[in-house]
Amino acid sequence: MTHSPTMTMVFIALLAQTTLCYSKITNGGYLYPQFYDRCCPQVTNIVRTIVAQAIAQDPRMAASLLRLHFHDCFVKGCDASILLDNGGTRNVISEKGSIPNSYSARGFEVIDRIKAALETACPQTVSCADILALAARDSTVLSGGPSWEVPVGRRDSLGASLHGSNHNIAAPNNTFQTILTKFKIQGLDLVDLVALSGSHTIGNARCTSFKQRLYGNTGNEHMNQLFAAQMRVNCPQSGGDQNLFFLDNVTPMKFDNEYYKNLMDSKGVLSSDQILFKDNQESMQIVKEYAENEDMFFQQFAKSMVKMGNISPLTGFRGQIRKSCRNIKG
Question: pTM of the predicted model, to two decimals?
Answer without folding.
Answer: 0.91
